[in-house]
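Figure 6 in text form: structure in, sequence out.
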């Protein structure tokens, strides 16, 4: 059994154990890892009438509970914009970090990190889906509803999921993170079909808006270490935020990329400008009163989310694509949830639709993994 290790330094102070969660093998592993640590364990029964239980609204409380829904589900894109065809392994919700712009604040009424305890038992259902379609490329990820690695030293997702995926030639798994929690990845013998990705932003945005995350240098040092250990890596410049000196700020981020990582072992870099559901604005104003991410003018997009005006988005994408292109012409650059017109205006080409983007990314998988 892998011990707690450096987990003591992470901002989780207690574990809240819901009824029926104790029946899971994952729960037993987690409880074993916190033995002898300062992490407290509290058994609870959430009030069915809606009254809040103390600790359930805290970022420092990890909530363990079974999940009755689907473990594998498509990324919640929209027909109004081009989607990448990503598939989500739904392992939990929220994380110990607290980014001001996080859209999950509007999706989940409680900020507590939550881990679903029955996922190991249900992986066989996922295996049946993957194995039934051997000709299809499944691009799986765990970073849609929570950070992929922030809790990994405690929950051990990497140690189980990596060999599960590496044995399937029609599947890749992407761990997406804003941390330097790569211990579990490096301790595994699995490398094939695994992508380790980092969400990046400008130095100022990381410092002011991404509370509790690892700094840019630590993220990129981790990326370099993963490349040295044989991993393929990816990056996500998302959300790109228009702020003072944004051109110089994002140039500094790209300069750091050049310093730390090899472009030939990058499978893709996505770009996506800030977008948010309208109700998120008041939540940000309340929870992050010093944040400036929703300052300025936005319009309601075709998907109902607030976005920068189209010319501003195209300008930002074109500028960053040009800067990245000076570093390398083969980065698998793509836009996240944008229109055909914005693709053409900013990158000079378009996959036309979601099927085209999926095919483009599948080709990147074949190029890096065979």
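Output sequence:
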């Amino acid at each position: 059994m892998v011990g707690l290790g450096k987990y003591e330094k992470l901002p989780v102070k207690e574990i809240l154990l819901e009824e029926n969660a104790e029946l899971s093998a994952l729960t037993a592993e987690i409880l074993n890892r916190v033995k002898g640590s300062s992490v407290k364990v509290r058994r609870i029964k959430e009030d069915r009438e809606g009254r809040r239980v103390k600790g359930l609204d805290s970022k420092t409380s990890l909530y363990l509970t079974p999940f009755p829904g689907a473990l594998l589900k498509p990324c919640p894109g929209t027909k109004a914009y081009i989607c990448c065809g990503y598939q989500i392994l739904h392992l939990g919700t929220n994380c110990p970090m607290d980014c001001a712009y996080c859209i999950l604040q509007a999706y989940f009424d409680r900020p507590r990190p939550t881990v679903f305890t029955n996922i190991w038992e249900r992986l066989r259902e996922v295996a049946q889906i993957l194995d039934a379609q051997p000709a299809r490329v499944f691009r799986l990820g765990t970073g849609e509803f929570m950070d992929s690695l922030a809790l990994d030293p405690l929950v051990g997702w990497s140690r189980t999921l990596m060999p599960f995926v590496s044995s399937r030639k029609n599947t890749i798994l992407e761990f997406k993170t804003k941390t330097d929690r790569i211990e579990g990845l490096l301790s595994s013998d699995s490398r094939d079909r695994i992508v380790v990705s980092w969400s990046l932003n400008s130095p100022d945005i990381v410092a002011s808006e991404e509370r509790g995350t690892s700094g840019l240098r630590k993220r990129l040092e981790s990326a370099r270490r993963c490349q040295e250990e044989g991993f393929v890596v990816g990056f996500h410049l998302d959300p790109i935020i228009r702020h003072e000196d944004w051109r110089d700020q994002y140039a500094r981020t790209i300069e750091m990329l050049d310093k730390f990582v090899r472009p030939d072992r990058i499978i893709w870099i996505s770009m996506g400008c800030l977008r948010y559901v309208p109700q998120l604005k008041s939540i940000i104003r309340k929870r992050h009163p010093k944040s400036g991410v929703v300052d300025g003018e936005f319009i309601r997009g075709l998907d109902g989310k607030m976005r920068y005006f189209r010319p501003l988005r195209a300008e930002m994408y074109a500028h960053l694509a040009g800067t990245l292109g000076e570093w390398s012409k083969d980065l698998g650059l793509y836009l996240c949830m944008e229109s055909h017109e914005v693709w053409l205006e900013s990158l000079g080409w378009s996959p036309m639709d979601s099927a085209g983007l999926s095919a483009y990314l599948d080709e990147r998988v074949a190029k890096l993994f065979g």
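Caption detail: Residues 224 and 287 are 34 Å apart (CA to CA).
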